[in-house]
Amino acid sequence: MASSFLPKPFTHHYEIAPEYSKSAVYFSCEFAIDQSFKVYSGGLGFLAGSHMRSAADLKQNLCGIGILWTYGYYNQARGEDRELAIQFRKKEYAFLQDTGIRFTVPVHGHPVWVKAMFLPGDIFGTVPMFFLSTDVEENDPLSRQITHRLYDQDHLRRIAQYIILGAGGARLLDELGVDPEIWHLNEAHGLSAAFHLYEKHHSLDEVKKRLIFTTHTPEEAGNERHDFNLLKDFSFFGSVPEEEVRKITGIEGDEFNHSLAALRMARIANGVSKLHGEVSRQMWKGYPNVCEITHVTNAQNKKYWADHGLEHARNRKDSVELRHRKRELKERLFRVVADQTGKLFKPDVLTIVWARRFAGYKRPDLITRDIHLFREMLNNIKHPVQMIWAGKPYPFDFGAIDIFNNLIRLTRDYPNATVLVGYELELSRFLKNGSDIWLNNPVVTREASGTSGMSAAMNASVNLSTFDGWVCEFAKDGKNSFIIPEADRSLSPHDRDRHDLLGFYQLLNDKILPTYYDKPKEWDKIVLNSMNDVVPFFDSDRMADEYYKKIYK
Predict the structure, then answer these.
(1) What is residue 539's DSSP assignment?
(2) Residue 548: what pLDDT?
(3) For the purposes of burial, counting CB atoms within 10 Å of the CB of 380, is it exposed (0-12), middle (13-18) or buried (19 or more)?
(4) pLDDT at 77 over 90
(5) Cys-Cys link to 491, which of 301, 467, 496, 549 (CB 3.0-4.6 A)?
(6) Pairwise CA distance, residues 236 & 251, whole Å
């Protein structure tokens, strides 16, 4: 029987399954594990959290390394005018164990102290996990701030954060006395770990044997870049000389592309959906010496996300029970709506939810851009609609914040439309459980995967989406979802958005509303199809298994 590669007292709380015996470590800036543990921002964290849960469920020989963010991402609240208020509050977690491990990592030529905290796997049903912090008394105030805020606005501090995650995580493994066979970077944030490996082995081949890279970015311009000399001055490359860094990464100019370097230092890389894999191969094909790029489609942990009552009804194919439980869950969600906004939503009314990270390309306000159509939807007496938005903009993305606040202002006069704050795991669960339609309308090819619709489908919410990301592998239009026809890619952004907006309203008025209200049996069939089709492929157990058998092999 294979044993945990971690030393006591940090070993796995289960016996390792033989087919997953290869030792692996997973580096990620964020993990959404539990509502009480606020070290995540959005989809990347939701994915990583599901991965850690499924890895434990499958009894894999894997551990996670992340950052203990003192202030988390931010607390989303309302100001006096009821618009978005961004609050940074210090967090404390009694369930974390101090490992007693302390070490220094060079940042800008200065030794920064790092402490390692441990999350036993049996606390939240994950693999063993370690979280690094520089917020310790041994450090000066600037060094302590490195791990204060996830995705800090200061790009210099972000470089320091990446060094702590990557090089710091690598140093932790040295302190533990382990050398995992697989080093898995969830995005390029932990890339400095690769240079630590190179320092140890003085061989790019040895690095490639171990390094795996998962990219979530579908556009070249979206991949993070920094000035090469700045990174060198910050000790990002450790003690590896400049000429060797340039040789092993193939970076020749003044600009260092983190993802490109990762693609040249890894043995294999993957996109996070079939379409994203294709887009990534096309995106990087002009660059020499990049590794093979395949795909592992993202997924969500059904065990964590699926409501037991809905799942019981699905297994019995009992539409009456399903509707009854859905009504209960809608009423629970609507108590949250009433508490936050003073609006009383009705459980018999079709409820549409748009909820995820607020970003321009995701177009949270798309359906409001024709105010006449929007008002017609909200004033429809025969086929009434309720609309809810939720999600966190990046705290310094003022364009996204403006969209968020504009939606608050726009919905004030409508009793059946609102915007909720506090979008974290618990509110996400309420929204997925209590929605009838999960709206997803990113610009096509801009969404690498998009996982919120998976857990929504597990909870009897039907996806209404543009044909992008994971939806391309799931959707059967009119049978398990509703798909907005793709716009001609030669259209201008304005005309493309108009096409997608009209596509939404046509689907809503011609298909969704008449089916929901006038053909309940047909609607029940679509809901059941959606619930049945989302598993097992979009359950993260499949994803975690696929990483071992397809990527880690």
Answers:
(1) B
(2) 98
(3) middle
(4) yes
(5) 496
(6) 14
Task: Give the integer Cα–Cα distance in Å for 99 and 136.
Answer: 14
The pLDDT tens digits for 180-239 are 999 999 999 999 999 999 999 999 999 999 999 999 988 776 789 999 999 999 999 999
Q: Cα dihedral sign for 234, 238, 242, 248?
A: negative
Within a domain: residue 6? no
* Counts of helices then strands in the chain (DSSP H, E): 23, 19
Q: For residue 248, how many other CB atoms are within 10 A of its CB?
A: 21
- 84-87 and 385-390 strand pairing: unpaired
Q: Per residue in 331-374, pLDDT tens?
A: 999 999 999 999 999 999 999 999 999 999 999 999 999 999 99
Q: How far, in Å, CA of 528 to CA of 314, rounded? A: 7
Helix, strand or coil, per DSSP, at residue 274: helix
The continuous run of DSSP H or E covering 325 comes out as helix 319-341
Judge if 223 and 337 occupy the same domain.
Answer: no
- Provide the 10 A C-beta neighbour count for residue 109: 8
> Would residue 232 count as lying in a domain?
yes
| Other CB atoms within 10 A of residue 255 CB | 11
- If asked whether residues 381 and 235 sit together in one domain, one would say no
Q: Which residues is 300 bridged to in the sheet?
A: 539
402: left (phi over 0), alpha (psi -120 to 50) or beta: alpha
d(CA 152, CA 373): 39
Helix (H, G, I), strand (E, B), or coil: what is residue 182?
strand
Whether residue 326 is found in the same domain as residue 288: no
With helix as H, strand as E and coil as C, how does 102-158 read?
A: EEEEEECCEEEEEEEEEECHHHHCCCCEEEEECCCCCCCHHHHHHHCCCCCCCHHHH
Is residue 293 within 8 A of residue 260, CB to CB? The reply is no
Beta carbons of 318 and 404 less than 8 angstroms apart:
no
Q: Are strands 481-484 and 75-78 parallel, antiparallel or unpaired?
A: unpaired
CB 285: neighbour CB atoms within 10 A?
A: 9
The SS3 assignment for 458 reads coil
CATH code assigned at 351: 3.40.50.2000
- What is the spatial distance between Cα 466 and Cα 159, in angstroms, rounded to a whole number? 35
